[in-house]
C-alpha cells in the first residue's frame, strides 16, 4: 500500500472504521473513500458492485458489521448470521470482481472454538465447536476470512484478515441491552454515579476472563498489516493480557468514580469461560499495543462524558 492508493473503508462511522480512518490520516494516507449506510447498503450485492465499479479503490478495509454483546447475539443469531454473511460476501467478492488488488477483512476472536487452547493461536480455527451465544456472527466472519484466503490462493489477490480481541474506545455503542460488556459497564456505572443509585446490576458471575484492546491500537495494527508486503492470511491482534469480568467491573467503577455496589445476576449467561488470543505472530512481525487498560479506560470514560454532553453518544 502506498500514499497514492485510493482506500475504501467500509463501516467508517463505526468504532473500528472511524479509528482506521484516523490511523490512516495520521500516517499520511489522504485518499480515503467512504459511504454511509444510506449511501450504500452493503447487504445489496448490486449496489456494492456498482460502488466498486464507480470508485475503483486500490485497497479495501472491511470494518462494517452488525455487532453486539451476549444478549444481542444470543437473541438474534439468525440476523447476525445473515447480515454479517451478506456484508462479508458482498464486500470481499465485489472487491475481487472489480479488480481491487488488496483487502483487509476484520473479524473477531469469537471465530475460535468455545474451548480453544489458551492463549488461542490462529491454528485453532475450526478445530471444535463454537460458542453458541454468538455462533451466527462467528460463522459469518469465518466465511469472510475463508473467502479472502481462497481468493488469495486461487486468484493471486492480496486479501488477508485480522482478528481483534474485545475492543473499546471512542465511538463505541453504549446500548445496555445489546451492547458489549465494557461500554455497558461504563454507561451503567456513570448512570448510577449521576443518579446516586446504591447498586449497579451486571450479568453473570464475573468469573470469565477477557482480553481488551483499545480501538486506536487495533487501527494502528490495521495500517501496520496493510504496509506489509506479504502478510499472513490470518493474524490475531490483542493486548496479550486478560482480566476477569469482576476485576474489570472494579476498574470501571474506579475510572468513573461511582460508589455504588455491584449486584451480580448469576442467572444470566457468562459466555465463553476464557478468551485470550495468542499474539505471538503479530508481535513477531513487529507490532505491539501501546495503550494499557487503565489508561484506555480513563480515556474512554472521558470520551463517553464528552459525547454525552455533546449529544453524539451512540446508544
List the helices and strands and how they pair.
Layout: E1 7-10, H1 15-26, E2 32-33, H2 45-55, E3 59-62, H3 70-75, H4 77-97, E4 102-106, H5 135-155, E5 158-164, E6 166-168, H6 181-195, E7 199-203, E8 209-214, H7 215-226, E9 234-237, E10 242-244, H8 245-256, E11 261-265, E12 274-275, H9 280-285, H10 293-310
Parallel strand pairs: 1-2, 1-3, 3-4, 4-5, 5-9, 6-8, 7-11, 8-12
Antiparallel strand pairs: 8-10
Helix pairs in contact: 1-7, 2-4, 4-5, 6-8, 8-10
Describe the model.
The chain has ten helices and twelve strands. It has a six-stranded parallel sheet, sandwiched between helices. Strands 6, 8, 10 and 12 form a four-stranded mixed sheet that branches. It is an alpha/beta fold and 315 residues long. The mean pLDDT is 95. It has a single domain, classed as Rossmann fold.
Compact description:
It contains ten helices and twelve strands. The chain has a single domain, classed as NAD(P)-binding Rossmann-like Domain (Rossmann fold, 3-Layer(aba) Sandwich), CATH 3.40.50.720.
